[in-house]
Amino acid sequence: MDTVSLIDIAGYLPENRVGADYFARFADSDRLAANIMFRAPKFRHHIASDENAVDMAERAVAPLIERNGSELVSNVDVLITHTQLPDVPVLGTGGELARRLGITPDWVVDLHNGGCASFVYMIKLARQIMQTSDASTALIVSVQNSAGQIFTQSDVRVLAQSAVPGDGAGACLLMKSEAAPVLGLECRTYPEFAGDMTAAVDPPRKYWEAGTGQLHIGFTETKIAKVFARGNRLVPEVALAVCKQIGITPDEIDTLVTNQPNRLFLRNWRDALELPPERHPDTFDECGNLFGAAIPVTLDLENRAGRIPNGSLVMMSAFAHAGDFAGAGAVRWGAAPVGV
C-alpha cells in the first residue's frame, strides 16, 4: 500500500468574535442551564450573515494554496467536504467549492455523517481512495457553520445549549508521500445510539418547511447522561485502538487533539490516556465547540505557533453526536510549515 501523508493544514475563523455576555443577556430559566454539558466558553466565532459554508471552506483552503502553490491544489484528485449545516442545496459544498477553485477532481464527496469525528473519517476515506486508485492528492475540508445561524435564533439563544458552539473551518492536503505519514486510523459506527441526539422544532415540521418553531437540538437530561458516558469512553477507546494498531503506548503521543464539546470531556480524555495538559491542546475558550472543525483548527493554530515539532506523533480522536460514531488517527508530523 502507498503511504499517504498529511502535508499541510489550515484553518479559518469568522471575524465576528462573540463573548459569553452575548448569551448571558438572553439566558432564560432553562432547566438544563446548570448542566456541565453547557458551561460556556469565554468566546466563540460566528459566521457572518452574508457568509455560507462554501465561503468558509474557500477561506480555509486559501493558506494551503498560498503555501503550496495553486498548481498542486488545482490538480487534486479527491475533494471531500463535511458541512455541519448544509446550506447549498442540490450542488452541495463540494461541487460549489470545486467550481470556485477551478478544479476538476475525479472524486467529489460531500460527507454528511461523521459529525465531530468527520475530519478523521474524511482522512480515512481519502487514504482508501488513494491506495486503491491512481489518485495521488486529496483536499479535505470540514465546516462548522451552525453556531451563528441555528443557535442565535431568538427562541434558541435563550437555551443553555446555545452558548457553547462556535463556527470555523479547517482544511488539509493529503498526498502519496513519506513526508508526514498517516500511521493508523480507526473508525467505528454505533447506529443503535443514533436516535439519542436529534433536531427538534415545536410545532413539528420538516426543516425546510415554513413555520413558527425554530430548529434546535432536542436535549434531555437522560440523553445528556448517555452522551457523557459514551463520550468519556469512546474517545480514549479509539485512540488506544490506533496505539495498538501502530505499536505504541499512549505515553508516546506527543500531541493529542480531540473534538471539544466541553472542558470536562477534555479533562477526562487526557486523564484516561494519562497525558499532561500541555500535550492536549484545545481552542475551547477561544472558539467553543467547533464540532468537526475542532481538530483541524486546533492543529493549524498549534502548528503556526510552533508547538508541533517535525517528527512529533500526533493523535486525533473524536466522537460524534450521541456516540453513534467515533474515529481516531495518528500522524507523524513532518511536512506542514511552522510559524507561517
TrEMBL record:
UniProt KW keywords: Acyltransferase, Transferase
Pfam families given in the database record: ACP_syn_III (PF08545), ACP_syn_III_C (PF08541)
InterPro entries for the chain: ACP_syn_III_C, ACP_syn_III_N, Thiolase-like
Chain ranges of the Beta-ketoacyl-[acyl-carrier-protein] synthase III N-terminal domain: 113-189
Domain Beta-ketoacyl-[acyl-carrier-protein] synthase III C-terminal: 244-333
Protein name (Swiss-Prot/TrEMBL): 3-oxoacyl-ACP synthase
Species the sequence originates in: Rhodococcus pseudokoreensis
